C-alpha cells in the first residue's frame, strides 16, 4: 500500500520546524547559557557555605570526607528527577501540579534513593576514614548527618524541580535544557546548607 504524499509533507514540515528552531544551535545557546552562568555562580555560593563550616569540620572528624559525596549524590538524583519530569511533560503525562501518579512516583522514587544512598554514604564515609588511618566521628554520627541532609535537601529540591519544570514549559522553554543544570546548581547550594544544619543539629544532641 502506497503512503499518502501528504504524510511525507507533514513529516518534512515537522523535521524542518525541529531543525530550524527547537534544535538549532542558537536556540540551545540562548536557553542554556543563562542557566549555566547561574550554575557557575551557584557553585561559588556552595563554596562560601563550606567555608563557613570550619568549626563543624574540625569537631566532626570525617565530615569533610562525606561532603563531596553528599553533593554528588544530591546532584545526580535531583538532575535525574528533573530530566524525568521534563520527559513526562513532553509526553503529556504531567500537565499541572496535582495528585498525578507519574509525578508522585518520580518524587517518591527520588526520596527513596536519597534515603538508601545517604545511609550507605554515611557508612562508607566512616569505613574509608578508618581504613586510611584517619579519625572518624563514628558510623552513627556520619550516617545520621548524611541521612538528615540527604532527605531534607531531596524533599526541598523535589518541590523546586516540579514547579520549575512545569513553569519553564509553560513559558516556552524546553525543560530538558534548563531544569537539569538549574537543579544541579540548586542541589549544591541546598545540600551544602542542609549538611551545615544537620551537623549543627547533631552537635546539639
TrEMBL record:
Belongs to the SLC41A transporter family. This is MgtE integral membrane region. GO terms for cellular component: membrane. Residues 67-197 form the SLC41A/MgtE integral membrane domain. It is a multi-pass membrane protein. Its main location: membrane. It is found in: Membrane. InterPro entries: SLC41_membr_dom, SLC41_membr_dom_sf, SLC41A1-3. The keyword Membrane applies. Keywords: Ion transport, Magnesium, Membrane, Transmembrane, Transmembrane helix, Transport. Pfam families: MgtE (PF01769). It comes from the Archaea. GO terms for molecular function: monoatomic cation transmembrane transporter activity. The chain crosses the membrane at residues 32-50, 111-132, 144-171, 183-203.
Amino acid at each position: 500500500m502506497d503512503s499518502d504524499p501528504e504524510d511525507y509533507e507533514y513529516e518534512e514540515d515537522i523535521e524542518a520546524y525541529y531543525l530550524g528552531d527547537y534544535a538549532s544551535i542558537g536556540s540551545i545557546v540562548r536557553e542554556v547559557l543563562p542557566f549555566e552562568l547561574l550554575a557557575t555562580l551557584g557553585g561559588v555560593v556552595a563554596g562560601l557555605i563550606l567555608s563557613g563550616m570550619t568549626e563543624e569540620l574540625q569537631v566532626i572528624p570525617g565530615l569533610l570526607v562525606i561532603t563531596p559525596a553528599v553533593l554528588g549524590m544530591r546532584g545526580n538524583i535531583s538532575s535525574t528527577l528533573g530530566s524525568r519530569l521534563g520527559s513526562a511533560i513532553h509526553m503529556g503525562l504531567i500537565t499541572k501540579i496535582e495528585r498525578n501518579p507519574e509525578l508522585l512516583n518520580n518524587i517518591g522514587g527520588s526520596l527513596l534513593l536519597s534515603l538508601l544512598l545517604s545511609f550507605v554514604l554515611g557508612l562508607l564515609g566512616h569505613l574509608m576514614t578508618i581504613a586510611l588511618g584517619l579519625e572518624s566521628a563514628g558510623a552513627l554520627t556520619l550516617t545520621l548527618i548524611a541521612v538528615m541532609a540527604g532527605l531534607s535537601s531531596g524533599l526541598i529540591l523535589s518541590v523546586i524541580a516540579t514547579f520549575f519544570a512545569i513553569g519553564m514549559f509553560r513559558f516556552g522553554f524546553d525543560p530538558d535544557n534548563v531544569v537539569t543544570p538549574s537543579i544541579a546548581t540548586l542541589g549544591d547550594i541546598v545540600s551544602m546548607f542542609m549538611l551545615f544544619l544537620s551537623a549543627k543539629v547533631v552537635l546539639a544532641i
